[in-house]
Amino acid sequence: MKILVTGGTVFASRYTAEYFTEKCHDVFVLNRGNDVQSVGVTHIKADCHALGDVLKNHRFDAVLDVTAYNGTDVRELLDGLGEYGTYILISSSAVYPETLPQPLNEEQTVGENSFWGKYGTDKIEAENCVKSTLSDYYIIRPPYLYGPLNNVYREAFAFDCAERDMPFYLPKDGSMPLHFFHIRDLCRFMELILETKPKNRVFNVGNSTTVTIREWVTECYHAMGKEPNFVLVDGSVPQRNYFPFYDYAYILDVTRQQEIMRETIPFSDSIKECCELYKHNMAPVKRKPLLEYIEKNF
């Protein structure tokens, strides 16, 4: 297939481009050319907000829009495209209000989430643009993505703490669940959508089970060959000051996903993979000042 991937230089979009390249598809990436491009892709150098005719002479079998944040991003890409087949938008579980009963399913009404704010409402706008414009489309709503090339300071933060033999400051009692999905599973699911063309158009995706934040930290420490020493922190301290996840627990109903793709990568195996990349400085992480806050306040 001839596939267009938006972005192609950072975490999810870069991994997507490399995944489909490895599967012997003809992959094109659309970005401004400010970063090194992946091996094997065809680079289309352009600003996605000023495409002009740069895409008009191409015919893509699939468009994987990994980078759209809002309706404007979607509209400008669609306006700039020539011929194309299936369009897949990577949206987010942030489109679900935190007030809904869980597990969250695709039939529930989307709306503002007070934790995710504008990010969530912008993703809703992007979804609505797709739904109102296209017929051959799919919308995917992942929870927390993780895996190789992840530039978000999550697993790397726990690895940093373990490497320094620090106690780990755990929010409350550590029982808050986290729902994850490996970036390779996301790509594999997109591949299956393109192969099977399912009837449903909107899909939650995620692992079949969640892990608590205590379990998540323990897996990260074990991957480093360490055992965490937990210090519990009560709710009076803002969680995001010293911990990389919001004080918000949510679980997605992934029944639709499992009808197409039941097996996912084992969580502990993938954490070990992330750790090996961390040890070899292969993860382009954007660190936040969590360690500095801990050093000053605990």
Structure description:
α1 packs across α5 and α4 (155-163) packs across α6. The chain has 298 residues and is an alpha/beta fold. The mean pLDDT is 96. It has helices spanning 11-22, 71-80, 118-133, 155-163, 183-196, 213-223, 255-260, 267-279, 290-297, and strands at residues 2-6, 26-31, 42-45, 59-65, 83-90, 137-141, 144-146, 168-171, 177-178, 180-182, 202-204, 211-212, 230-233. The protein has two domains: 2-146 and 181-204, NAD(P)-binding Rossmann-like Domain (Rossmann fold, 3-Layer(aba) Sandwich), CATH 3.40.50.720; 155-178 and 208-246 and 265-297, UDP-galactose 4-epimerase, domain 1, CATH 3.90.25.
Number of helices: 9
- Helical percent range? 25-40%
- Architecture (CATH level 2) name of the largest domain: 3-Layer(aba) Sandwich
Biggest sheet record:
7 strands, parallel
- The class by helix and strand makeup works out as alpha/beta
Strand ordering within the main sheet = 3-2-1-4-5-6-11
The secondary-structure element order is: EHEEEHEHEEHEEEHEEHEHHH
Amino-to-carboxy terminus distance = 54 Å
Task: Report mean pLDDT, rounded to a whole number.
Answer: 96
Here the CATH topology of the largest domain equals Rossmann fold
Q: Could you tell me the number of beta strands?
A: 13
Taken as a percent bin, the fraction of beta residues is 15-25%
Domain count: the total is 2
Q: Could you name the CATH class of the largest domain?
A: Alpha Beta
Oligomer: single chain
The coarse overall form would be globular
Considering the protein shown, what is the CATH homologous superfamily of the largest domain?
Answer: NAD(P)-binding Rossmann-like Domain
